[in-house]
Amino acid sequence: MNDVLSRRALYNRISIAGVALASVVVSVPIIGYLLSPFINKQERVWQDVGAVDQFKLDTTVQVNLQDPSPLPWAGETALTSAWLRRTDSGFIAFSIHCTHLGCPVNWNQGGQLFLCPCHGGVFNAEGQPAGGPPQRPLQRHDVRVNGSRVEIRPVPLRVRG
Predict the structure, then answer these.
(1) For residue 74, what pLDDT band results from cuts at 50, 70 and 90?
(2) DSSP symbol at 53
(3) Residue among 94, 102, 88 at smallest CA distance from 61
(4) Is the pLDDT of residue 1 over 60?
(5) CA dist 143 to 12, 112, 132, Å?
(6) What is the DSSP string of 56-97?
(7) What is the rounded distance in angstroms from the CA atom of residue 90 to the CA atom of residue 99?
(8) SS3 assignment, position 139
(9) Which positions ≥6 away from 65 have C-beta within 8 Å?
(10) Burial 143-159 (b: 16+ CB within 10 A, else e)
(11) What is the mean predicted confidence (pLDDT) over 34-48?
(12) Over residues 29-38, mean pLDDT
């Protein structure tokens, strides 16, 4: 009878050790994923979008960018855009993403509005909400002129809050 109890105790301990090991194996990647934004800060870099003279005054155009926070395996999905406007005082760059849920906004030249086709969001020419569910203005990217080239430093997407 003593052999049965000690065998049972051994199997009990092996089972507990197996469950503990499985828990550690599953939880380590999850904890790493949750903590990675705090540990591995993404560096925001300036990205060349074209020559200064290719952008007409008071015209808003779409320019292509690399997402500032892509995963190493993102591939084509790391490509994004921004809306760039040349004004008398320089350049303004708006995020292409609606601040409601991140859908891409379109520029309507005739109405001078940014329109979100997904949920009816409307932004005026300055990126301020003018209708629909968005409560915050379109995010702006940093823009600079470096020599004869226009460069944008995109900000990561923030929605709802």
Answers:
(1) low
(2) G
(3) 94
(4) no
(5) 64, 21, 28
(6) -BT-EEEEEEE-SS--TT-GGGGEEEEEEEEETTEEEEEESB
(7) 24
(8) coil
(9) 47, 49, 79, 80, 81, 82, 152, 154
(10) beeeeeebbbebbebee
(11) 76
(12) 79
Rounded mean pLDDT of 121-131?
92
* Residue position matching structure tokens 């003018």: 130
Locate 92 and state its tokens. Answer: 């303004």
Single-letter code of the amino acid located at 94: F
Evaluated on CA atoms 71, 34, 100, 153, the torsion sign reads negative
Tokens linked to 137: 């203005």
What is the mean pLDDT of the segment spanning 40-68?
86
Contact partners, residue 67, CB within 8 Å, separation at least 6: 74, 77, 78, 79, 80, 154
Residue with tokens 């609606």: 98
For 58, the token pair is 């008071």
Q: Which amino acid is at 129?
A: P
The per-residue pLDDT for range 89-111, each reduced to its tens digit, is: 999 999 998 888 888 999 998 89
Task: Please report, as a single letter, which amino acid is at residue 62.
Answer: Q
3-state SS, residue 126: coil
Q: Look at the pTM and tell me if it is higher than 0.85.
A: no
- What is the SS3 assignment for 49? strand
